[in-house]
What does this fold into?
Amino acid sequence: MNSEAVSKKIYIEIVKKIRMMIDEDGLKPGDKIPSERELSERLQVGRSSVREALRAIELLGLIETRRGEGTFLRDARGNQMVQLLSTFILQDQKAVKDLKDTIQFIEMDCLRVILQRNNDHKIAHYRQTVEVLDDVSDDEFFLKMMELANNHLLYRIWVVLNDFYRSVDLKKEASSKPAYLAVLDALMAGEEKEVIEKYKRLRKLL
Amino acid sequence: MNSEAVSKKIYIEIVKKIRMMIDEDGLKPGDKIPSERELSERLQVGRSSVREALRAIELLGLIETRRGEGTFLRDARGNQMVQLLSTFILQDQKAVKDLKDTIQFIEMDCLRVILQRNNDHKIAHYRQTVEVLDDVSDDEFFLKMMELANNHLLYRIWVVLNDFYRSVDLKKEASSKPAYLAVLDALMAGEEKEVIEKYKRLRKLL
DNA sequence: ATCCGCAAGTGGTCTGACCACGCTGTATAT
DNA sequence: ATATACAGCGTGGTCAGACCACTTGCGGAT
It folds into this structure.
């Protein structure tokens, strides 16, 4: 009933139509979508209804609007969503601990997935890259791990949680290069137990 | 720059003020928030700007508005958000597999957390509850596991992903009661390896 | 070639009007 | 005393129109 009521709202219909339009036109992040006035005309709805729809998906981080320029598609990396959700959800200190724990679980899951992927050559290749670095960026390291895992959803969850972690302005400790290399070596050895142990050492959980 | 521009938008400021208002008034899910016209007056902004803000957080699933009745706070279970995000993010069949895999990872993580909690008595208590059931609801079972884990973020991620899974209308297989009981027994035994093995049998991954 | 002004198109905010719905209180009928 | 109907009020929903601020592109002047 309630969800039916919501789905009957014009702004929801507009969001759906915008979505279809993006699909049909094959728009990619960075591309411009039709202007408010054009959407209003095309969809035969009021401009303020169009604006309501656009505001909604802008807050989701799906588009961005720039005065005088237009409305652009963006990666579905909801930094605004993260910020706003944080104020509703993250309301106590315990949640910060949960956040940290959860990020670590996602990271360990990611490593387990990599083990299943059997792509030693890619890991080895990345190891060479890491070896010549002076410092290893923790974010870049795990971004690469997410890529190697090839599970888009884990990647997305990790990005959202990580951005969130950043937004509550908690400084994440960087670890030493040998610790990152140890994780990569364990991945290539293929032993899950070893991988998790090295990860825990990286995160100083042991 | 872009995020600065966004944060300067009136509707974003309105969202923030609504958030603060909810906090200060101690509003809970189900409670009514001030009407559009009242918010417009109180915040000294146009009603359409208020509506833009409300539309945005309604789409996030944080509030719901009912014509003739008002605007109500709801659990931050973004079913609409899930639906809409799905059309932007879940665009291929591989993602469905990722979704399933990720839910399973979250569930295993949850079980690992429970192992750390050392609450055998609660597990035992729940086991008694399960034993007298004819059928075990998979959702209820894992909802209970999430509760026992006491990690609100894992719980939230699981709920969102699970709702999402449901929304793409994939039927999740229910398992037999002995399988659920086996997981609970392994939890009480305290052996992580055993727990994960039983879980995998439950999910028919072995 | 460069600079500047202007026009056009964009988004941002607002006011006001009107409609549809739901709730509540009151009047009326039984 | 009770049930029903209706009016009023407050709510959300949609829209038109006005006006402002910003960006970009183009044409003309230097």
Summary: Residues 90-202 of chain B form a domain with the Four Helix Bundle (Hemerythrin (Met), subunit A) fold (CATH 1.20.120.530). Residues 93-117 of chain B form the longest helix (25 residues).
